[in-house]
Every structure is written in C-alpha cells, then in structure tokens.
C-alpha cells in the first residue's frame, strides 16, 4: 500500500511527469487559476502512482481530495474530509485524473465526516459537465464509501460531486451581465483571504425600491448558484416586463458570498471554518459583516426601500424556506401570493413551501425578517435538479416576482398619494 509521501529521488522522477502533465493541461479552463496557492489548502494534492503511469490531482480551485493511497497497480483510495467538524453532510469531492496509457482505474471514495451524497459528474475540459452515475459500482450501506470504475487515458478527466463553478467562472458571468447599460458592478467587501465580494446592481430607476439576491454562502450548493444566475438573467433581459421592473426597482446581487470556500473546495464553511449562514447574529466574519452593511444601507435609504430578500441555496429537493410569519412582513402577503402564482404557472410542478425551517437560527433569512421586517426567503434547488429545469423554474419565478412587485409598488405609491391628499385637504 502506498500513500502520497515520497522520497527525494522519487520526487525528482515524479516532478518530470507532473511537469509534462501540467504543460499539456488545457489553458483555457476555469478549473485552473494561476494565482491559486495550493499549499495553503489541505485538500489540494498531487499524487503519482508507483510506476508513474497515473496522476491524480485536486490542486485547482474547487478541488477536494485530502489524501490518496495506492492499494494496487490500478486501485486507489481517495480520502474526503470536511474543513471542519461537525458539519452538514455536503461531502464535496473534485479531482482530475490522467494516465500515460489507456486503462481502467478503480477509485474508492472514503468519507471521513460525511457520506456519499453526490453522484459524480465528469468533464474533459473543466467546463462542460456530464452525469456519470454509471461510474459508481458500489456504495457502502451508510454511504461511507463509494467505488468508481473510471477509464482514463493521456487526456485529463475531471470527476466532481457537482459541476465546478469557480470564482473565475462566476466573475466571467458577472462581467458579461455588467456589459448591459443598466448594470453596474463593484465590491462590497473582502473575505478572510482577501478575495473580493462582488456586487451587481441592475436598475433603470432613481427609486430606492430594491430587491436583494445572494448565493453561495455554502460553496457546494451549485444548483442554487445556477438558480440565481438564471433568475438574474431574467431580470436583466431585454423584455417588456423586465424593463418595466428595472424602471421601478433596483436589483442588488451578491453572487458569491463565500469566495474562499469556493476556491478551497470547502463543504460549507469559509476560510476560518465558519458556516456563514450561522453567523447572522454575532457577525464574526468579514463576509457576513459586508453583507450586513449592504443590507442595512437599504434601510437607511428609506423605511420601505427593501421589498424582498432571496438567498439561493441547494438541498435534497426544491423548496422555499420562510419564517412562519413571513406574510406579515413587508410587502404584506407577498410570499404566499408569489408561491401561489408559481403553482398556477407550473401546474406540473409541486411548489414546496416550509414555513418553519431554521426560523430561530442565526441565518440570513431570519435576520432580515427580524431586523428589516422584509419578506425573506431561502430559495433552495435540489442537488439533482437538472440545469434545464432550474432555468425554467428560476426564469418563471423571476417573471412572476416582477409582475407582482410592479403591482405592489404601484399600489403602495397610490396609497402614499392618497395619504398626502388627505393631509393637504383643508376641508374640516
């Protein structure tokens, strides 16, 4: 049995192979960032087999394998550990494998602190991903191990729990959205490791009326990130409804709340080992402090400037999490009306609403509801919900939200005008 601890002579020989492997890796892929310091992360490894024919690596943004042990000529154990324990069971793995000649490898994923939650996806370039559940030949009854049979050759093959969506990839998407005349981008703060927390502002209005969208407090929650992207694309689209919405509302978007966790391939936490969505009471981390400042700025802009808060996540199924009294927040009864509209729009789909999930925990949703008295929703997409369905649902939910908020905004303005008229009426 062989582990990734190498002798000096072995290291020199292996260095030659790694130089070759690195040299022919695809330079266009978002999966590799030349500024990424793999030495700072325990989950970044490079392993070369005893005969130097197989290379397994996770030293790229979003990669995660904590240890590689060679069991046989073409058999390897990959140990997957979280960044912190105890932790929510979101056992993330991502690695690249290649060989000097075509062969079939047996790779056993061994989970320490979690279980096999995610069926693998594969990619030949780190960008386009395909389901690969067929690679899984066995799973331990309690999910502590999973065995994969993988055919490899001289070209790199990425294997990941979900598709890699690195900070570079999201930055490219942000830059594309920001090319529109009515979109601005800036930075609201910096992470523990000094990565920027980027913000988009989408508006054609001078009004202070605002909705706030965010995602990626938890790095592994890719379907939630995809949902946010499709939601934002609907708001920024060149459609009549989207234009009407932008003329009355600002949309503030923080796509990646936890850029360090994304870069490190963390299951859930930031670089300090803190679950950001449990830090919305004490605000000990720079990421949550930046988000709080941004949200509070909308309260100072006007008592009723913030109309809606959506925090995009992923879990085992599609679901909307709210506080039990969410319809008592501003705007009144908006959430139930919105979800009913979604059910009517998607008759084939079950709009799942849980009104008592983590209501008393230190989450973003609970803090916004309690502090800002605004409708706050955790918008969850299922781990296995397909990107095409996510796109349909996210676009539809954005369109229904825009339609309803335009109506609410107009009604609110009419009520304000009526109050002004009554106050100015000299009639006794």
Radius of gyration: 24 Å
Mean pLDDT: 89
For the largest sheet, list the strands in their spatial order. Answer: 13-14-16-15-17-20-18-19
**H and E string:** EHEEEEEEEEEEEHEEEHHEHHEEHEHEH
As a percent range, the share of helical residues equals 25-40%
**CA distance, first residue to last residue:** 95 Å
Please give the count of helices: 9
Give the overall form: elongated
Percentage of residues in DSSP E strands = 15-25%
Secondary structure tally: strands: 20
Q: What is the CATH superfamily of the largest domain?
A: Zn peptidases
Structural class: alpha+beta
- Major β-sheet annotation: 8 strands, mixed
Question: What CATH architecture of the largest domain do you see?
Answer: 3-Layer(aba) Sandwich
Q: In the CATH scheme, what's the topology name of the largest domain?
A: Aminopeptidase
Report on the structure:
The chain has 428 residues and is α+β, with helices and mostly antiparallel strands. It folds into two domains: 46-160, Immunoglobulin-like (Sandwich), CATH 2.60.40.3120; 167-415, Zn peptidases (Aminopeptidase, 3-Layer(aba) Sandwich). The protein is built from nine helices and 20 strands. The protein has an eight-stranded mixed β-sheet with strand order 13-14-16-15-17-20-18-19, sandwiched between helices. A six-stranded mixed β-sheet has the order 1-4-5-7-11-10, with no helix packed on it. Helix 4 crosses helix 9. The longest helix has 38 residues, at 387-424. It is elongated, with a radius of gyration of 24 Å. The termini are far apart. Mean pLDDT is 89; it is low at 2-40.
């Amino acid at each position: 049995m062989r582990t990734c601890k190498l002798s000096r002579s072995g290291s020199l020989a292996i260095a030659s192979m790694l130089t070759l492997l690195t040299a022919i890796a695809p330079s266009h892929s978002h999966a590799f960032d030349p500024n990424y310091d793999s030495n700072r992360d325990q989950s970044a490894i490079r392993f070369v087999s005893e005969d130097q024919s197989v290379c397994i690596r996770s030293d790229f943004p979003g990669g995660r394998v904590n240890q590689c042990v060679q069991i046989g000529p073409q058999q390897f154990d990959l140990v997957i550990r979280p960044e912190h324990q105890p932790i929510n069971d979101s056992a993330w793995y991502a690695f690249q494998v290649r060989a000097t000649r075509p062969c079939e490898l047996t790779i056993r994923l061994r989970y320490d602190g979690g279980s096999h939650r995610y069926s693998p996806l594969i990619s030949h370039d780190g960008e386009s991903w395909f389901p690969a559940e067929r690679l899984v030949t066995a799973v331990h009854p309690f999910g502590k191990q999973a065995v994969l049979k993988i055919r490899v050759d001289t070209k790199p093959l990425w294997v990941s729990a979900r598709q890699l969506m690195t900070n570079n990839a999201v930055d490219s998407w942000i830059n594309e959205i920001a090319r529109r005349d009515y979109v601005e981008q800036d930075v609201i703060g910096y992470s523990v490791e000094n990565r920027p927390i980027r913000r988009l502002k989408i508006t054609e209005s001078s009004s202070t009326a605002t909705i706030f969208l965010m995602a990626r407090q938890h790095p592994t929650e890719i379907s939630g990130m995809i949902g946010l992207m499709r939601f934002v694309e609907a708001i920024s689209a060149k459609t009549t409804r989207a234009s009407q919405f932008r003329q009355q509302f600002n949309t503030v978007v923080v796509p990646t709340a936890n850029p360090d966790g994304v870069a490190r391939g963390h299951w859930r936490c930031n670089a300090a080992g803190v679950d950001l969505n449990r830090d919305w009471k004490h605000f000990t981390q720079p990421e949550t402090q930046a988000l709080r400042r941004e949200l509070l700025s909308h309260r100072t802009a006007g008592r009723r400037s913030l109309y809606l808060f959506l925090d995009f996540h992923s879990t085992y199924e599609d679901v909307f999490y709210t506080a039990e009294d969410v319809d008592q927040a501003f705007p009144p009864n908006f959430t139930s009306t919105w979800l009913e509209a979604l059910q009517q729009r998607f008759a084939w789909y079950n709009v799942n609403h849980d009104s008592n999930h983590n209501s008393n925990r230190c989450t973003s949703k609970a803090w916004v509801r309690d502090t800002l008295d605004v409708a706050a929703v955790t918008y969850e997409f299922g781990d296995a919900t397909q990107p095409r369905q996510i796109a349909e649902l996210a676009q539809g939910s954005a369109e229904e939200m825009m339609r309803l908020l335009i109506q609410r905004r107009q009604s609110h303005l009419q009520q304000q005008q009526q109050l002004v008229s009554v106050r100015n009426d000299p009639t006794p």
